[in-house]
């Protein structure tokens, strides 16, 4: 696995870039974690697909944003990833996006429709902008209340890890360190931007985009309104429909990685 740093106008972006003969897969992680959360997917695809896993600005081994107000929102993150893709010379790729990373993936679908061969999102409701949109896609849950907090307590750090990866990951100090490392401004400014209606209408995007889209969620996700997702009129939804993976929550790629990886393989086969 090759790690490198890509200079962008948003700051230095840490990237895993591994070779592969098949379609490159761009992986974008959830809020307050890092690219290593895709360990099982990287392990499964290594030697087949080129893998490009990024740490978003303010996360993991990337630098904090040069201009936090400009970068810490769906559009800003997507623009930073676009610069990475351009620097790496990748002309066509699939996207795998988790939670916040799924929202960034949707923006990339909008920005780079010709380059995006297909997108798989999980833990990500495609929502209209503003608080009304957030109320449609997300369930009222105390476990989600900390996502916009700049400073987290020890208990809230554990909650971030549990939501992102499941309860089995909470004792692992690596993930707690990852959450503590995250620029707290990234949480606050991202939520502020989403609730102020700064991002474009992602519900309208999935209703109109011709880019193949897979939507996977844990059947027991505590923060995503799965009925809302089922109500959407997708233009290019994967033939399997909006999948609910049984006995999994928000971090289904970690909790049920074998089943998740099987779905990922099947989707990649359909778009290549």
From TrEMBL:
<dbReference type="InterPro" id="IPR050266">
    <property type="entry name" value="AB_hydrolase_sf"/>
</dbReference>
<dbReference type="InterPro" id="IPR029058">
    <property type="entry name" value="AB_hydrolase_fold"/>
</dbReference>
<dbReference type="GO" id="GO:0016020">
    <property type="term" value="C:membrane"/>
</dbReference>
<feature type="domain" description="AB hydrolase-1">
    <location>
        <begin position="25"/>
        <end position="261"/>
    </location>
</feature>
<dbReference type="InterPro" id="IPR000073">
    <property type="entry name" value="AB_hydrolase_1"/>
</dbReference>
<dbReference type="Pfam" id="PF12697">
    <property type="entry name" value="Abhydrolase_6"/>
</dbReference>
<keyword id="KW-0378">Hydrolase</keyword>
<dbReference type="GO" id="GO:0016787">
    <property type="term" value="F:hydrolase activity"/>
</dbReference>
<protein>
    <submittedName>
        <fullName>Alpha/beta hydrolase</fullName>
    </submittedName>
</protein>
